[in-house]
Amino acid sequence: MKKLFENKIVCRTLIAVISLYVLIAFVKLPPINGDEQSMFSEMVYGTAWKPFVYRTLLPTTVRLVSGVIPEEIHNSLTEKFESNHSLVLVLEKLKWESEFITEYLIAMVLMYFSLLGFVYVFRKLFDEIYSSHLWFKNLISVILLLAIPAMFQPNYSNYVYDFPALFLFTLGLLLLRQRKWNYFLVIFLISCFNKETTILLTLIFAIHFYKKDEVTRKFYYKFITFQLIIFAAVKILLFILFKNNPGGFVEFHLIDRNYLLFNGYSLTTFVVLLIIFLTIFSRWNEKPKFLKDALWIAIPLVILTFLLGFFDELRDFYEVFPVIILLISLNIARILGVEFKVIKD
């Protein structure tokens, strides 16, 4: 196994192929066009329901790229798909409209590179926190990718902004760890146009750097203020741009499906959750402080999920996903007997 994961070409090919599999699974089950309030074409052209339309980074990028492609190419692609029986079947399976095939293909490319970017940034963050063998980092990268489809659920839709959220939030974590404040603010701004949970990066900064001598009190409060101003400005802008769209600023789902929580749960669910919980918190004293501080965002995520989402919709926890994988990496290293060192913050 070591030799396999030490080979650069093999690992890069493996990550590229698994990423492609994850992307196909992402758009297939459930389809990204499965929610009537956030239909793909309506997201791209800004007519979807609020609050989904606020997550506009990738949809707007798709619209801009599509806008510079000549109409002849749009028509040619549509005709090619509509005239091929096999391609028609693919469109039916995915619930894609043939007239927007150009936009779908652009979105697929952007989502694929977002996924690859997520893995790349995760590996950089791994190197900032741990010192270990290359083969082990490659192994964790593969585990990271293979774990993502476990959060795809047939009862819920996947959304075009999910992979960009994984990429941008993890990049924000990396920049916080590296103390690259100016770059962080730029990514924070961009990420605010993708998903409002970007504000959780502010919470991580507030917790982790609260008692850091390297950060003065003046800078600490100023940096938090900058983030809050950016977040508020983006939210106000999006509110104005989409004020005439149907829907509300947020969606409350406290009752909805959450009442099913009282129906009990299976033994398998209990065992899986118990293993994850024990793995995260075992050897707690050895775990990096940065990751332990970042894990605090799980609390507001759970609360927000109960109020504004559904308790069993796992995609609501994407922001804490890389933190959890990094935390359990230490345990996996100990089990495998891998030479592993935590880099002090």
Q: How many distinct beta strands? A: 2
Calculate the mean pLDDT score and round it.
91
Helix content: 55-70%
Shape label: globular
Count every helix, treating DSSP H or I runs of 4 or more residues as helices.
Answer: 16
Short description:
This protein has 345 residues and is mostly helical. It has helices at 2-6, 8-28, 40-44, 57-67, 71-83, 85-94, 101-129, 134-147, 162-178, 181-192, 200-208, 217-241, 267-281, 289-294, 298-308, 321-336; strands at 130-132, 340-342. It has a two-stranded antiparallel ribbon.
Describe this structure in words.
The protein has 345 residues and is mainly alpha-helical. The protein has one domain (2-342). It is 63% helix and 2% strand. The chain contains 16 helices and two strands. It has helices at 2-6, 8-28, 40-44, 57-67, 71-83, 85-94, 101-129, 134-147, 162-178, 181-192, 200-208, 217-241, 267-281, 289-294, 298-308, 321-336, and strands spanning 130-132, 340-342. A two-stranded antiparallel ribbon has the order 1-2. Helix 4 (57-67) packs across helix 7 (101-129), helix 7 (101-129) runs parallel beside helix 9 (162-178) and helix 13 (267-281) crosses helix 16. The longest helix is centred in the middle third of the chain and has 29 residues, at 101-129. The protein is globular. 31% of the residues are buried. The mean pLDDT is 91.
